Hints:
Number of helices: 16
Strand order of the largest sheet: 1-2-6-5-4-3-7-8-9
CATH architecture of the largest domain: 3-Layer(aba) Sandwich
Shape: elongated
Amino acid sequence: MDDAKSGITWDDVPEPRDAELAAWVFWHMCPGIGxxxxxxxxxxFETAEAAARAATRGAKRxxxxxxxxxxxxxSALDIVGAGxxxxxxxxxxxxxxxxxxxxxxxxxxxxxxxxPAVLYVMGRTxxxxxxxxxxxxxxxxxxxxxxxxxxxxxxxxxxxAGVVSGMARGVDSAAHRGAIEAGGVTAGVIGAGLAYxxxxxxxxLAREVAQSGCIVSPFHMTYPASRGxxxxxNRVISGMAHACLVVEAGARSGALVxxxxxxxxxxxxxxxxxDINRPTSAGTNALxxxxxxxxxxxxxxxxxxxxxxxxVTLPDPGNAGRGQNLGPVDAAVLEAVRSDxxxxxxxxxxxxxxxxxxxxxxxxxxxxxxxRGAGLRYSRRHC
Length: 383
């Protein structure tokens, strides 16, 4: 059974193609028609195309369809043609349409309550290519937050997991870039249609994500972004994923909405601990207090995912702490850390700004490769 709460199963529904897919797309665009109503239309008329013909021929409105939705459908001159025009628009933007019964539709997303009937996907990666892990957090992230997101996403990608996030600035962008740096796959779910005009910064990130993975939207191509579209985006992110990692979030961060959806979807929620004196970590620290699993190192995080049945490849324990998969900056900083080394000594040993050294030390600490003592003194962690 897929949509368990509503008793709906999509297992026996054939994948829609051609005119039937166009009818699915039209009903997806129709106000007031969600997947549960579409299911009932399929039960009543056998196909989405037959339901469309009934509406345009003035058939009596089924009791489970709202008056607004039936009027909208009845007024369309050519429902299949309208759906086909939307599919062609997607194709011109390099996107494809993936319907709920499709083999490419993310299987975990299909099993949540009321999943999107249609997804629009742009990029080379199939939505079933990797086990997805959601990595989310604040737009106004600190260097600690973006460093942790980038590092942990690199490790997830190196372990064979896909990183799914929300294409926003801050933690989301760092998570996507970390996966790309590791040569892995990443999916960016956006809160608007794929033809909606992005900012120049997001367009640059979108190109990178599409080349290394895919961009996903549950909205029709020209649907505008609004305050109400982002919870729907967050719901897709958590629904696609085996688990949700919140890297850094304030007490009212939108990333906490994603973690709430993850809990509703029966997903494991992880959080990166932060400074108790920083408002930017209030949300993640509260998640841990309420039962989320703390992430204190990349290897242990991957071990917990593997124990939960997520198909990830654990790194060789014999290489732990030796700096494998580190970028050149982190590798150089790790090399400068000995036993009880002060920040001043580390900085003096390296030809880089103090801020970059601090950011790298934060990443190495989150990775479990070093430990921080009193007075900004650091030591390597011995495994």
